[in-house]
Amino acid sequence: MNAVRNFRATVNYALASGAGLIMLAPIYLVFVNALKTQTDSATMGMELPLTPQWANFGTVIDQGKLVEAFFNSVIYSVGGTVLSVLVSAFAAYVLARNRRRRHEIIYMLLIMGIAIPTNFVTLTKVMQVTGLIDSQIGIILLYAATQIPFSVFLIYAFIDTLPKELDEAAFIDGCSPLRTFGSIILPLLKPVLVTCGVLNMLNLWNEFLMPLYFLNSTRNWPMTLAVYNFFGQFQSNWALVSADVVLTILPMIIIYVLAQRWILSGVSAGAVKG
Amino acid sequence: MNNKAYPTWFAGGALLLYGVFVLVPAVLGLGFSFTDWSAYSTDIHWVGLDNFAAIFDPNSNYLSAIQNTVLFTVATIALKTVIALGLAILLTSGVKKLSYLFRALIFLPAVLPILIVGVIFQSVLNPDTGLLNSTLRLIGLGGLAQQWLTDVSIALWSVIGVDTWRGVGYIMVILIAGLQSIPRDYYEAASIDGASGRQTFWHITLPLLMPVLLVTTVLNLLYGLRVFDMVFVLTNGGPGFATQTVYTTIFQDFSLGRYGTATALSSLFFVVMLVLSFFVIRVMRPRHEG
Question: How confident is the model over B15-36, as a mean pLDDT?
Answer without folding.
Answer: 93
